[in-house]
Design a protein that fits this description.
alpha+beta, Arc Repressor Mutant, subunit A, Four Helix Bundle (Hemerythrin (Met), subunit A), 2 domains, 4-stranded antiparallel beta sheet, 12 helices, 8% strand
Length: 305
């Protein structure tokens, strides 16, 4: 599977290009749009008025088309001689283009062997979210907005695609949460596994990839929300019941109910995060709205235990 990741500065939407499809995760919860990926200029020609590519750009464009649209991870690229002959460029130009894609993590180069398409790696997304939370604990609220765009849709899809393996994994995760009420780390780990299994049940490889990529920062988010949950006077079993409701709807094939159950769970998570971070909620108090301008946290996240 080949994935490209981009964030639209105009709409706030997150766009993921996978093989020949583009998936747009809207800023509106539960909305995912799919549209054809425009043909690569390498195969369709340049648009009118667009300056022609130079030799280096033509080779990069051609290799990107192979990586994103034709070759599977681990597949070798054409040899240097083949690229020189096919594209009519020098060996030096091909080598520079290969180094460019290698620097971007799109291909792997080993001495004495042809470059191969790199396997999907979640580290860049994981590092981004994790470092954001380390710099500012309030970034968990940004992560929560991303979760809304992903997990409501995940629950919706899973309701129509649930399989026995995922159902078993989600049930076991709920049991593990219940058995770990006195072990916060184990409780949070089981919580993460539940959401990963739900993503797998959606049958959407992009959603599964993104949920797995967020596993590490989500642990910190869940730690903070758990503290806020207890500070609000709600027992941890209430979190388990929120998850159980999601699972029941998914197993019943109730897509609307699953989406509503996930939205309700994330609303509670938002309230708990605001409690931990000592940030006010806008709105009437019964439903969380957009946060007011955040105040600097009085203590690092690790001191809020």
């Amino acid at each position: 599977m080949h994935v490209r990741y981009d964030v639209s500065q105009q709409s706030g939407s997150t766009v993921f290009c996978v093989a020949d499809n583009t998936y747009q995760i809207s800023s509106h919860p539960g909305v995912t749009e799919s549209m054809p990926l425009p043909p690569s200029p390498a195969s369709s020609g340049r648009l009118k008025g667009v300056p022609p590519l130079n030799a280096h750009e033509r080779v990069v464009d051609h290799l990107e088309h192979l990586v994103f649209g034709e070759l599977a991870p681990g597949s070798p690229l054409p040899s240097e001689s083949q690229l020189v002959e096919q594209l009519g460029v020098s060996r030096l130009t091909v080598r520079e283009a290969v180094r460019s894609l290698q620097a971007r993590g799109l291909i792997e180069v080993h001495r004495g062997r042809r470059p191969v398409v790199a396997r999907l790696n979640t580290s860049a997304i994981t590092d981004f979210f994790a470092s954001s939370i380390r710099r500012d604990p309030r970034s968990v609220l940004d992560l929560l907005e991303v979760r809304r765009g992903l997990e409501v849709q995940t629950a919706t899809l899973a309701a129509g695609r649930m399989n026995r393996t995922a159902a078993t994994s989600m049930t076991e995760s709920l049991d593990a949460m219940h058995a770990s009420l006195d072990d916060p780390d184990a409780f949070d780990s089981a919580d993460v596994r539940f959401h990963e299994a739900l993503a797998s049940a959606s049958g959407n490889q992009v959603l599964t990839f993104l949920i797995e990529a967020m596993a590490l920062p989500l642990r910190e988010s869940r730690r903070q929300s758990r503290h806020g949950h207890l500070a609000r006077g709600r027992p941890l079993v209430a979190i388990i019941e929120e998850h159980r409701r999601i699972l029941e709807c998914v197993l019943d094939g109730d897509a609307k109910g699953a989406a509503e159950a996930m939205q309700a769970h994330l609303r509670q998570t938002e309230r708990s995060l605001h409690m931990t971070l000592d940030l006010p909620l806008a709105g009437n108090g019964s439903e969380p709205g957009p946060a007011a301008t955040p105040r600097p946290s009085s203590a690092p996240a690790d001191e809020q235990n």
